[in-house]
Design goal:
Blueprint: H1 2-12, H2 14-42, H3 49-52, E1 56-61, H4 72-79, E2 83-92, E3 95-96, E4 102-106, H5 108-113, E5 118-121, E6 131-134, E7 146-151, E8 154-164, E9 169-171, E10 188-190, E11 200-203, E12 210-220, H6 226-239, E13 241-246, H7 247-300, H8 305-335, H9 339-343, H10 349-375, H11 379-387
Parallel strand pairs: 4-11, 6-8
Antiparallel strand pairs: 1-12, 1-13, 2-4, 2-12, 3-7, 5-8, 6-11, 7-8, 9-10
């Protein structure tokens, strides 16, 4: 009976409720986009935080100077003083028989720690064998298709298990920056197949020759001295590095970049919450004033003012849930458009949190405004005012 009254009231005041639902939907969609943008700006820092926040080096390799005749990654590691770990991208001699692709592969650590944005399928794991993830392309390939990979060792069939979203940052591939201070962002390359010579294929483990190249993160033991760091830097240049940056400088610059990004986006989130605050107050005032007559009748029939507050909360909750449904629909539509290439819409804990905060704020303010208004007016006064008594 209680819920039936709530739905009847919503239907009776449908114009106000429709406006409220649409306003709340717009606010929540904007909040999701803002949170997604913040997440996209900082999410790439954390997979390799262990490197960015410790002593080490960020290396950009000159492929024309790399020694392809040996296990180059192992040789680099053994040539450095107090090198603890290394993660990076590998060039391959593998090629696709059916189509033209640029092919790379990664260390297990990248497969394990990094999760790119995919348009379909899944990312590779360190256990993956003879699998591949490709970028967007004009070949009309889809998840589940098989391609023939050719190498000096022969031919192998590789199954496509995922397709990257357009402009998805690819770790350790390429940077156009030659001078200036590097940050964690320079370890990533936004791959857009429309601007590239050919699409990209990322291979899992398999029978093909690979060699360390493009970009590498190196972590040193914390006991390394400044002199030893400089010696390692000289060694890396001699091995074929085009650019070597001290990881402590990378960390400092990365934090500056993240603070700058957040200083731009956090005010937007605060503005959205203030907009929610103002919208809720204005809608609550309009709705309560319009429904005071109904509340007074409920009171005259034996319901307490507190019961009217519960009625208002349930009505507000129902309209808020309708807004959430519309938000889900809107996000699905936006996710399939080019807008997602700008925002990288992500549904995660923080997305749920901001939506919950907005709904919670809406419920609390609605209840407060109702109490303020009805506490200043007696039910008899409201009833007489609406019946000329």
């Amino acid at each position: 009976m209680f819920l039936k009254l709530c739905f009847t009231d919503i239907k009776k005041n449908k114009l106000i409720n429709i406006c409220f639902v649409l306003q709340l939907t717009v606010i929540m969609v904007l909040a999701v986009l803002a949170v997604s943008t913040v997440n996209a700006r900082i999410r790439n820092y954390y997979p390799f935080k262990n490197y960015f926040e410790n002593k080490g080096a960020f290396c950009v390799w000159d492929s024309s100077r790399i020694d392809f005749g040996k296990d180059f990654a192992q040789y680099v590691s053994e040539s450095l003083i107090k090198s603890e770990s290394m993660v990076g991208t590998y060039m391959t001699y593998a090629s696709c028989k059916e189509y033209e692709f640029s092919t790379i592969t990664y260390d297990d650590e990248i497969f394990e720690n990094y999760q790119p944005v995919l348009s379909s399928g899944r990312w590779l794991t360190k256990e993956s064998v003879n699998e591949a993830v490709i970028t967007q392309n004009n070949y009309n390939l889809s998840v589940g298709d098989e391609l023939t990979i050719i190498d000096d060792y022969g031919e192998s069939k590789y199954k496509i298990v995922g397709i990257l979203k357009q402009n998805t940052p690819i770790p350790g591939y390429f940077t156009s920056k030659q001078n200036g201070e590097y940050s964690y962002k320079d370890f990533y390359y936004a791959y857009n197949h429309e601007f590239e010579e050919r699409p990209m294929m990322i291979l899992s483990k398999g029978d093909y020759y690979k060699v360390l190249g493009y970009q590498t993160l190196i972590r040193y033991n914390e006991s390394i001295t400044e002199e030893e760091i400089l010696m390692n830097e000289e060694k890396l240049y001699s091995l074929g590095c085009l650019k070597v940056q001290d990881m402590r400088d990378i960390s400092t610059q990365s934090k500056k970049v993240m603070r700058k990004d957040l200083s731009t986006l956090v005010p937007i989130l605060i503005s959205l919450l203030l907009l929610c605050f103002i919208t809720t107050i204005s809608n609550s005032v309009l709705a309560v004033k319009k429904q005071l007559r109904d509340y007074s009748i409920m009171y005259m029939c034996g319901a307490q003012w507190r019961r009217c507050t519960h009625f208002n909360l349930v009505r507000t909750l129902i309209t808020s849930l309708v807004s959430v449904i519309l938000v889900v629909i809107a996000i699905k539509i936006l996710y399939s458009t080019n807008i997602n290439n700008m925002f990288f819409i992500t549904i995660n804990f923080y997305t749920y949190l901001i939506i919950t905060v907005i709904i919670g704020l809406n419920l609390i303010l609605s209840a407060i405004m109702l109490r303020i208004i009805i506490n200043r007016t007696s039910p008899v006064q409201v009833f007489k005012a609406n019946h000329g008594g």
